[in-house]
Amino acid sequence: QLQVEESGGGSVEDGGSLKLSCAATIYVDCMVWFRQAPGKERQGVAALYLRGDHVIYADSVMGRFTIVRGDAENTVHLQMDNLNRDDIAVYYCAAKVSLLERRCTLTPDDFRHWGKGTQVTVSS
After folding, report:
1. pLDDT tens, 40-71?
2. I need a surface site. Which of 8, 60, 71, 98 has the fewest CB within 10 A?
3. Rounded to an integer, what is the distance from CA 35 to the centroid of its chain?
């Protein structure tokens, strides 16, 4: 059964960096980071289609966040640089077998398997 687990997160100062990691327990080809700030809807941040390394980023993180595959199978990392207070949220990883690159999206409803989330806080 597919399970997803995040690690990393924490608190940094404005402009700082953090690295999140996500691991799936079985084979997947699509791994995506989402985030949810208090009172807001869950938002797609970055997606990686592992069978071709195709990536998608939300406009709000383009140029600041980088999603890459990990050395271990079925793992990805999210490097977050130049963090600001708009990035404060619980970050969730989701994964699936999508088979097609176009099915690896930033849409929360497209995913059934989620991690429990990890908090990211930015202080000014």
Report:
1. 999 999 999 999 889 999 999 999 999 999 99
2. 71
3. 8
